[in-house]
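2024-03-11 09:14:02 DEBUG pipeline.ingest accepted 1 chain
2024-03-11 09:14:02 DEBUG pipeline.ingest length=120
2024-03-11 09:14:03 DEBUG pipeline.predict start
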Amino acid sequence: MDVPVEFLIRGARRETADVVREFATRRLAHAVGRLRHGVRRLTVRLVDQNGPRGGVDSRCSITVARRDGGRIFVEATAAWPFAAITLAAGRLGEALRRDVERRAQRRSARQKEEDHDSIS
């Protein structure tokens, strides 16, 4: 993936962190996909909230810094870090698609308004 990704992983051994980083990179490449041209940087935070006690405690949060200065934030919590990453990446893909659609609608509305003003 050609978008810089910053990883902050707490509560994992070095070997585990490397595997999680590779998995997250693949999931993010898929989630961002064709919309990567608008993304400047991704920051992924993966935290084991309860430590060795277990439970639904792996939280993955992803922040997207857009090229136009905007930001998108998503997060997900699951029992396993891979599940949390998968859920958060899916939410990121949806958030990026909605963002692109909103921007296109605004451009379209502005264009219609400009066309209407030039006719008057």
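2024-03-11 09:14:41 DEBUG pipeline.report The mean pLDDT is 86.
2024-03-11 09:14:41 DEBUG pipeline.predict end
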